[in-house]
Amino acid sequence: QVQLQESGPGLVEPSQTLSLTCTVSDGSIAITTNYYYWGWIRQPPGKGLEWIGYIAYSGSTYYSPSLQSRTAISRDTTKNQFTLQLSKVTPEDTAVYYCARRAWRGYYTYEYDNWGQGTQVTEA
Fold first, then answer.
1. CB of 51 within 8 A of CB of 41?
2. What is the pLDDT of residues 68-120, one digit of tens each?
3. In the prediction, which pLDDT does 80 show?
4. Segment (H or E) for 99
5. Distance in angstroms (rounded) separating the CA atoms of residues 65 and 52
6. Which of 19, 27, 67, 90 has a CB 3.0–4.6 Å from the CB of 2, allowing a cystine?
7. How far is it, in rounded angstroms, from Cα 3 to Cα 12?
8. How far apart are the first and last CA of the chain?
């Protein structure tokens, strides 16, 4: 069964870049079968989930318009990892960050069917 695990520093200095890595086990981030997208989602304290962006099986990236100017998602297929970089962090970026797999269910139906446990990142 596919497993995802986030890793990276828990503290980021103001205005610096947040950097996280998601390691995927028992599944390939590059395989085209099922058209998986590999995404980053965050949840600030007391707030709901916020989608950041994802990288597709093809390597194409897609970002939330509100974060696009500060976001970069990349991958290393040899290590089966994908990364998140969020620049110029502010207190509003403090959140639990998750990596997750998005699966296509047909037509316009999608579901994040596998998630990492999440990792706390604090701007301080």
1. yes
2. 999 999 999 999 999 999 999 999 999 999 999 999 888 889 999 999 999 99
3. 95
4. strand 95-106
5. 9
6. 27
7. 26
8. 36
